Amino acid sequence: MLKLMPALLALIAAPAAAQPLTMAERAEIDRLVTKTLAESGVPSASIAIVRDGRIVFTKAWGKANEGLPATPALPYQIASNSKQFTAMALMLLEDEGKLSLSDPIGKYIPGITAGDRITIRQLLSHTSGLQDFWPQDYMFETMTHPTAPQGIVDRWAKKPLDYEPGARYQYSNTGYVVAGMIAEKVSGEPLLTFLNRRIFTPLGMHPIDQDDSNTPALPAGYHRYALGPVRVAQPPARGWLYAAGELSMTAEDLAKWDIARMNRALIPADDWIAQETPVIRTDGRTNGYGLGIVNHYVRSRHVIDHGGEAVGFLTQNSIYPDSKTAIIVFTNADFSGATDTLTEGIEKIVLDAPEQALAGEGDRLTDVRAVYDALAAGRVDRTKFTSNLNGYFDATVLGDYRASLAPLGPPTSIDSSGPPRLRGGFVNRNFSIHYPGKTLTLITYAEPSATGRFEQYLIMPE
């Protein structure tokens, strides 16, 4: 019985099986990705989805390079999504008693401006005041020559501070270069070696240094200048992405890390919490950035996320802790908003399914347009209205609707602003009414069913 106890406990602690994506959801995702790549010109996308704390979807579309189809097994450069790993390395070293995040950075790396006043925590939260060495969204000429961390420090971290430590937020790759140097000095081993030993190997992840990923066997990055042709991008020389964006991995690899975060696994729970806690600046403000990760609300959902931009690559990693969901989107292009379009689109497919009670309600755009046309002409079919709405549309209201809407001419379109939802026994649908140079908002309530009467039909400025 004693021998069976660990197995029994494991069974008790195991989470319920994740709900797999339905065929309809998979088809919607496929249409979304195919359409987005075609419209943007982005060569490929690799996507992983976590649902209920389990990986339920991995797929890649398009071409990884000129002679290689994209597959989920190929690592993409994740750029600044690497920062959360650098930050966690320092937190683990703090757990070992080898440093404190409150230590001044000058204790470990000499010669940096205000090194006696900048703390490690300020490096990780982008509040150090150190100037960012790469604010551009392109590779400048110096990056075609190899560098080393000390070279970046000597050129950028010894300049006057942009502001007093802790006073403001300014994204700084320079700060993460310094953070990586501290991690290596304290641990006595290369950063990637430390991360492999403490994080990647235990989680079954297999990232590589992005400097080693610029080969014909792996994805190439792509540029586009204005609306010109999509071109293979020249990668930077070795050393530039150190600690601030040095990793290449598969979307499935990053999903495994996201699951560990959701489950507070491998890493002490207080470290996960500390990494996700927004740092408060000396003026009492925060933008939600913690230690290598952002913690905020997006589209009414709690999201822990970060993006990444390398030369020719854009990535987005979004975790929805309240539902144990994650959406990981990798693309090998740095010229479009495809990663955001795909993340938001997949979020709607996976997380925004309408409530079961509203299934089949539809958008009722035909009825909405018919009522609009009638009001603009100064008439109304009162059989489409409840008694309350008929009482609302008296002679004054009808007159104002006609006088203000008729001069605008027919709308170019009326578009739904979101899924239908229940309120007060009615179905709420909101719309945007578009004209040349103007948009109005329409808020409706109607009785349930495809032919339910309207309880509200209010048009107002956007």
Give an overview in words:
By secondary structure, the protein is α+β, with helices and mostly antiparallel strands. The chain has 2 domains: 19-351, Beta-lactamase (3-Layer(aba) Sandwich); 358-461, Nuclear Transport Factor 2, Chain: A (Roll), CATH 3.10.450. The protein has helices at 5-13, 23-40, 83-95, 120-124, 149-156, 173-187, 191-203, 251-263, 269-276, 338-351, 365-376, 387-392, 395-405, and strands at 44-51, 54-65, 68-69, 76-77, 208-209, 222-224, 230-232, 247-249, 294-298, 301-310, 313-320, 325-331, 413-416, 421-423, 426-435, 438-446, 454-461. The strands form 4 sheets. Strands 3-2-1-12-11-10-9 form a 7-stranded antiparallel beta sheet, with helices on both faces. Helix 3 runs parallel beside helix 6 (173-187). The termini are far apart. 39% of the residues are buried. The model is unreliable at 1-16 (pLDDT under 50).
Write the layout of secondary structure elements.
Elements: H1 5-13, H2 23-40, E1 44-51, E2 54-65, E3 68-69, E4 76-77, H3 83-95, H4 120-124, H5 149-156, H6 173-187, H7 191-203, E5 208-209, E6 222-224, E7 230-232, E8 247-249, H8 251-263, H9 269-276, E9 294-298, E10 301-310, E11 313-320, E12 325-331, H10 338-351, H11 365-376, H12 387-392, H13 395-405, E13 413-416, E14 421-423, E15 426-435, E16 438-446, E17 454-461
